[in-house]
Structure formats: structure tokens, C-alpha cells
Amino acid sequence: MYALILAGGKGERLRPLTDTRAKPMAEVNGKPIMWYQVSKLAATGVTDVVVLCGYKWETIKDYFGNGSKFGVRIHYSKEKTPLGRGGALKQGFRLVPSSESTVIACNGDVLTGEDLNSMIDAHKNNGAIATIMLTPYPSAYGVVETDDSTRITAFREKGDLPLWINAGMYILETSIAPRLPEIGDHEDSTFPELAAEGKLFSYKTTKFWKAVDNHKDLKEAEENLPPL
């Protein structure tokens, strides 16, 4: 099985760490974010990982090489100019053999404790072209509930709200490749089209999840990341 990791972002909000390295190479408890991703993918049964890279991509290649030390084969799809996430995926699919039907894709800054094989099973059972992992929306503030007469009826402490957000982890059929944009974001074009056709599904998880986008996220990941 193949997996694609979107690793081309500059990680502006993780500077100065990202002044000298690609964003997925920012370390959580002494290991790059991508180390955790590759380890989970290998444990899931992935044999080949395509890294969709651009900014400071050499720092990824210097660490992971051909992937043999990590139990996978690693291939690199380098952007010559910024393609956007959808364009990067489209280019990366060219390194996936036609014999493959289903792949995992993820943003390069995402950590999750979810069992990806369960997500793959749900994707196949639904007959989906694409499945998006969803996670509860975390709120830094408490919520006040009122009725129609403005009377306060309840207080909800800060934490997860009854809303779901895109967790940046996907299961995709390779047949999606022609529908991806040459340049741009798949969430602005391909995914809305699939949703309208009833071919886009969700997979909800309440297990650990963190998108490491800034230094606060990095600290929280270090404090809460479960063992592999």
C-alpha cells in the first residue's frame, strides 16, 4: 500500500525552527513529526511513502533517505513551483503504480492515535472515493447557551465542542487523481464535487489528534502524544 505525505509547507508559525528545516522535521520529544507519521504508516501495512515536498526538502531526504531504516520505501515528489495541496497530490500520484487502488494521504503536520486500518475498512465498506478523518473541534473558551428569550440555560466548559473538523488524514481511491487540480487546493474543488455526488465520506475519531502549526501546538503534542 502507498501513502502520500503533504510536506511542502514552510511552517511560518514554527519559526525559527523552520528556518533551517522542513515543517514536518520539527521535533516532538526528540523525533521529527514525520518520524511518527512514517512509523504509524509502516505499522498500518504501508510499504511505500511518497513525500510531497518543496521547502527545505533536503532536510527530509537527509534524515529518511530511501526509507529502508524505517521499514518502508520512500519516494520524493518535489515541486518546482508551489502547486497547492491538490496540485501536489496530483503530481505525487504519478509515482503510485496503476496496480494500486487505495492510498493513505495526510498533511505533514498531523499526529493521530487513531487506528488507520479501521479507517481504511470504513472507507471500503462505504464504497467511497475519498474519506476524511474528522476530529472534535477544540475550543479554548467556555460556551454560554441561551434560549430564544436570551435567558441563559447552561454553561459548557472549554474543551471539545459538538462540531467536527477536518483532521488532515485521508483515504483516497487512486481514481481521484484525474479530478485533482493541477494547481490549487483539493478542498476547494475536488472534495465539494465528490460531496455533491455522494462519494465523499467521513470517519470520526475521538482519539488523540494534533496538528502542529505553532509552538503552542508543539508543546501540547509533546505533553499528550500517546506511545506508538
Largest sheet: 7 strands, mixed
Question: What strand line-up does the widest sheet have?
Answer: 5-4-1-6-11-8-12
Mean pLDDT: 91
Number of domains: 1
CATH architecture: Alpha-Beta Complex
Structural class: alpha/beta
Q: Report the total helices.
A: 6
Helical content (DSSP H or I, runs of 4+): 25-40%
Q: For the terminal residues, how far apart are their CA atoms?
A: 20 Å
Q: Could you please say which CATH topology applies here?
A: Spore Coat Polysaccharide Biosynthesis Protein SpsA, Chain A
Instruction: Look at the structure and give the CATH class.
Output: Alpha Beta
Write the layout of secondary structure elements.
Layout: E1 2-7, E2 27-28, E3 31-32, H1 33-44, E4 48-53, H2 57-64, E5 73-78, H3 84-93, E6 102-107, E7 110-112, H4 116-126, E8 130-139, E9 143-146, E10 152-156, E11 159-173, H5 190-197, E12 200-204, E13 209-211, H6 215-224
Parallel strand pairs: 1-4, 1-6, 4-5, 8-12
Antiparallel strand pairs: 2-3, 6-11, 7-13, 8-11, 9-10
